[in-house]
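Researcher: Let's do a round of design. I'm pasting the structure tokens now; please hold your answer until I've finished.
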């Protein structure tokens, strides 16, 4: 199971939000705006991912030798 926030930075997290110490204005922060887009895209992918689709991807993936 995957756990934890989807956001890569705490100021973009929906579940564990924390303001950044270095940020002057969240509303115009380019890093935060980009990280919100990444978080939303990640959530969209995960929302449409099923265990069945993960299994299918695993079966199609080339086997790597250890």
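Researcher: That's everything. Go ahead.
Model: Designed sequence:
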């Amino acid at each position: 199971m995957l756990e934890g926030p989807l956001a890569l930075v705490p100021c973009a997290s929906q579940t564990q939000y924390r303001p950044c110490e270095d940020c002057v204005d969240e509303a115009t922060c380019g890093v935060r705006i980009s990280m919100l887009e990444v978080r939303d895209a990640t959530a969209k992918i995960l929302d449409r991912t099923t265990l069945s689709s993960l299994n299918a991807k695993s079966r199609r993936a080339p086997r790597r030798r250890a």
